[in-house]
Design a protein that fits this description.
By secondary structure, the protein is α/β, with parallel strands linked by helices. It has helices at residues 31-40, 79-88, 112-123, 168-180, 188-194, 214-225, and strands spanning 3-8, 25-26, 29-30, 47-52, 64-65, 68-74, 99-102, 129-134, 139-142, 148-152, 158-167, 200-203. It has an eight-stranded mixed beta sheet, with helices on both faces. Helix 2 packs across helix 4 and helix 4 (168-180) packs across helix 5. The structure holds cytidine-5'-triphosphate and magnesium ion. The site of cytidine-5'-triphosphate has 22 residues, from strand 1 and helix 2.
């Protein structure tokens, strides 16, 4: 059984505005609903746990989508705390060695073929796998005053996306360990890497964008509107 964990407890500080970005609409529905639809319409995903801000007034209260169970839990201060809370809310029959897929609520343009390839890679490797894409731009190191200090090699650098897939117990140990050490992991792989593991990089579609700013939402609107339902 493979479950999805969807952190949706953020406040969207960088986006600004009153409505947290996971509830902003693109192509007719909230970003969170796009993310859940992409996950739960995939035959390899059996259910989802969504982490919400305490007292979230906008959560529609879904208990099933695409005929699969949807559970909700209260998230935490940091994204990693919200993911750990979702792990603890998983049904007891999701075994320690089953895969879980962590996916940002603010990533609405996930395609089924990326999920399929991610699950296959994570199932074949004990350390799990993440969707990612090689860095394409030339990278500059700044001096803090608007000047360029150096041009950095980009050959070995990748941008980490979600979903990120790990065995349930490895992810739980990794996130609990980082939390106990006071380290804020900005993605799941970072916490797993700390344990000495080497999650696999699965090259994914570059249009699997995370909405962070209003410009990203405009792009998401274009990408989602041209997808056939
Ligand atoms: N998230 C979460 N719990 C937190 C922080 C973030 O569940 N304490 C979720 C967000 O809702 C989002 C995902 O993690 O779906 C990715 O985080 P990010 O893009 O950083 O969203 P926000 O934290 O809401 O935005 P910002 O950092 O600009 O405040
Ligand atoms: Mg954030």
């Amino acid at each position: 059984m493979t479950w999805a964990l969807v952190p949706a407890a953020g406040s969207g500080r960088r986006f600004g505005g009153e409505v947290p970005k996971q509830y902003l609409h693109a192509a007719g529905k909230p970003l969170l609903e796009h993310a859940l639809d992409a996950l739960l319409s995939h035959p390899g995903v059996d259910g989802a746990v969504v982490s919400l801000a305490a007292g979230d007034p906008r959560w529609p209260g879904w208990t099933t989508l695409h005929g699969k169970p949807v559970l909700a839990c209260i998230g935490g201060v940091e994204r990693a705390d919200s993911v750990l809370a979702a792990l603890h809310a998983l049904p007891a029959d999701v075994a320690a060695d089953e895969l879980v897929l962590v996916h940002d609520a603010a990533r609405p343009n996930l395609h089924a073929d990326d999920i399929t390839r991610l699950i296959a890679a994570a199932a074949a490797h004990p350390d799990g796998a993440i969707l990612a894409a090689p860095v394409r731009d030339t990278l500059k190191r700044a001096d803090g005053e608007g000047g360029i200090v150096a041009t950095e090699p980009r050959e070995a650098l990748w941008r980490a996306f979600t979903p990120q897939a790990f065995r349930r117990d490895l992810l739980r140990r990794a996130l609990a360990d980082a939390q106990a050490a006071g380290i804020v992991a900005t993605d799941e792989a970072m916490a797993v890497e700390r344990l000495g593991c080497r999650p696999r990089l699965v090259e994914g579609r570059e249009d699997n964008l995370k909405v962070t700013t209003p410009a990203d939402l405009a792009l998401a609107e274009i990408l989602l509107a041209r997808r056939t339902p």
